[in-house]
Amino acid sequence: MKFHSPEYYEAVKAISLTDKAWRDTARGFTCRWQALIKDIPDGTDRLIEWETRNTKLTDVKWYSKPAPSEWRTMPVDESKFLGRFVGPYWAVCRLHKQEITAMMAIGMEEYDIVGDVTEVIRKIESFDAFIDLQSTIPCEY
Fold it and tell me: How many domains does the chain fold into?
């Protein structure tokens, strides 16, 4: 399956219900956040809305627009989302391949967090566990 395809999102949702390592590490993680992946090889930007409740991925929605999209400069609605992780496709692939951690990505010039950075940092262990969960899904880049 292709990385960040509809099938990929459904696979992440399914595995979040059963993966013991994810459940043990994230310990009841409840959060709603966005990710913006810029410059996907198909020429689009992709905005993903993730929602977890008690460490279960309960909802994932995705939208695509031709790159560069206005999403790159759009503020995050902090009444709905903790924040938005913004990065180029190649950096998100590095996260999935576990070449870098979420904290390392945050420190990269090409990667950004829009929203309450302090609160995101407080939840970084759960975000790292979510990346670990996703990395168990084999996919094509």
Answer: 1
Pairwise CA distance, residues 128 & 135, whole Å: 10
What pLDDT score was predicted for residue 101?
83
- Going by C-alpha positions, the residue among 75, 105, 74, 69 that lies closest to residue 87 is 105
Instruction: List, in order, residues 6 or more apart from 120 with CB less than 8 Å away.
Output: 33, 82, 83, 106, 113, 127
CATH of the domain at 21: 3.30.1050.10
Half-sphere exposure of 135 (CA within 13 A, CB side): 19
Q: Give the predicted TM-score (pTM) of the model.
A: 0.92
Residue type, position 25, single letter: T
Domain span at residue 129 reads: 6-135
123-to-14, 70, 79, 119, 128 alpha-carbon distances in Å: 22, 27, 17, 7, 9
